[in-house]
Design a protein that fits this description.
This protein is an alpha+beta fold. The protein has one helix at 49-70, and strands at 14-15, 19-23, 33-37, 74-78, 93-99. Strands 1-2-3-5-4 form a 5-stranded antiparallel β-sheet, with helices on one face. Strand 1 and strand 2 form a beta hairpin.
Amino acid sequence: MCVFCQLEDHVKLMENEHFFMIRDQRPVSRGHSLIISRRHVENFFELSESEVICLHQLCQEAKAMLDDKYCPSGYNLAINHGRSAGQTVFHFHLHLIPRYG
């Protein structure tokens, strides 16, 4: 069973119709979060147009929350597609990584 499909509601920091956000279990920086699709699809290219719109909306809301809480100087947005690209959980997720310095 997929680890993202089994997540409980209390770990979700924010959500919308198609996505939810959690803290990364192995963060590379303060505030490192994952935005995960509710629908079990493996990668970005399987998302529908309406899902991509909701992904963008939740990214904007998440950035605002992280800006307020951590005041980063930049961000990395990362999507790994396929094993050779570093994907280890085959359920779509976007890494939202605040950067400092």
